[in-house]
Design goal:
By secondary structure, this protein is α/β, with parallel strands linked by helices. It is about 30% helix and about 25% strand.
Length: about 280
C-alpha cells in the first residue's frame, strides 16, 4: 500500500523510496470501529474531539485530533448508528445506540478521512477473534500481514479473487522486532458468528484472526495508496468452546487495555521515523 506517482513515460513509481521516504512521518490516521476501543486511545494521547469535522453533514462519524511528539494524530470512529437512536423526547432503551461496526461504515470513514486528512500512514486498530489452531490466545496482540474477505463468495473466475480481495499490509519489520508482536493473517466479514461457509473461506485465507472491518479499510487505503498497518487484539477464540458473543463481551474491557498499550508503543516507535524505517 505504498503511494504511487506518475512518471513522464506514463508509468507509476512508488513514493516509498521517493518523496515520502525523504521525510519523517507527520500525519497518522487511526481508524477504530468501536467507542469502547477508541476512548482509551483518545485519553492516552489526550486527543480532543473535533466539533466540526470535515465530513458530510449528518453522518455520525467522530474525529479526535491532537499532537503527540512530532506527530499529528487523528483518530476516527464511525459513531453510533443513527437509525437506532430514539427521539429527543424519549429516553433511549438499553443498548439502542450501537456502534456502527462492519465493512460499510469502515470503508466510508476510511474514504472520508483520507480525503479530509491526507494521512502519511493509517493504523487500523481494534479487537478480533483468534483461532487456537493458529496459536492465538485471548489478550494476544497481532500485526496482520495480509487481509482478505471471507463472506464475499463469487464463484466465477476472476470475480472469486475480487471477492476475497487479498491485500498485504504495509511491511514493518523494524516495528515488529522492536515490539515483539505476533504475526498473522486477518480475515474480514460482516458477521460476528461463523457459518460453515465462512469457516471454509477463513481456512482458505489461512487466517489467524477474524474481524469486521480490516479488509474494508485495506481496500480503500489501497485505492489511494496510503500505507496501512493493522493492530489487532484477540478478545475471543473463534474455534474455542465458549460462544463467541459471550466471550467477546466478557473480555472486551481487558483486551482493549492491551490494545491501548500496544497502540501507544506503535505510535512511539513511528515518531521521528520515515516509512522506510518502519
Amino acid at each position: 500500500m505504498a503511494n504511487l506517482v506518475d512518471k513522464s513515460d506514463g508509468s507509476e513509481e512508488s513514493i516509498v523510496g521517493n518523496e515520502a521516504e525523504k521525510r519523517p512521518i507527520s500525519t497518522v490516521l487511526i481508524i477504530i470501529a468501536m467507542q469502547t476501543e477508541a476512548l482509551p486511545v483518545v485519553n492516552k494521547f489526550q486527543l480532543r474531539e473535533d466539533p466540526h469535522p470535515a465530513f458530510p453533514k449528518g453522518v455520525p462519524w467522530v474525529r479526535y485530533y491532537g499532537t503527540y511528539k512530532d506527530l499529528q494524530l487523528n483518530l476516527v470512529w464511525p459513531g453510533k448508528d443513527l437509525s437506532l437512536a430514539s427521539s429527543d423526547s424519549l429516553p433511549p432503551p438499553p443498548r439502542a445506540r450501537v456502534d456502527s461496526v462492519g465493512t460499510v461504515s469502515a470503508s466510508l470513514v476510511t474514504y472520508a478521512s483520507i480525503q479530509a486528512l491526507k494521512p502519511d500512514l493509517i493504523i487500523n486498530a481494534g479487537t478480533a477473534g483468534g483461532f487456537k489452531a493458529k496459536e492465538a490466545s485471548v489478550g494476544d496482540v497481532f500485526l496482520a500481514t495480509d487481509v482478505a474477505f471471507h463472506d464475499r463468495r463469487i464463484p466465477i473466475p476472476v470475480f472469486d479473487l475480487y471477492g476475497v480481495g487479498l491485500r498485504q499490509a504495509f511491511s514493518t519489520p523494524n516495528l515488529l522486532k522492536e515490539l515483539n508482536l505476533k504475526l498473522g493473517k486477518l480475515s474480514t466479514g460482516d458477521s460476528l458468528d461463523m457459518s460453515p461457509k465462512d469457516e471454509a473461506s477463513i481456512t482458505a485465507n489461512d487466517a489467524t484472526l477474524k474481524d469486521m472491518e480490516g479488509a474494508a479499510v485495506a481496500y480503500v487505503a489501497d485505492l489511494f495508496k496510503v500505507p496501512t498497518i493493522f493492530v489487532k487484539a484477540v478478545t475471543d477464540i473463534v474455534d474455542g468452546e465458549k460462544p463467541t458473543a459471550e466471550e467477546f463481551l466478557q473480555n472486551l474491557a481487558a483486551v482493549t487495555a492491551a490494545l491501548d498499550q500496544t497502540v501507544e508503543q506503535v505510535v512511539d516507535f513511528i515518531s521521528g521515523k520515515r516509512l522506510s524505517e518502519l
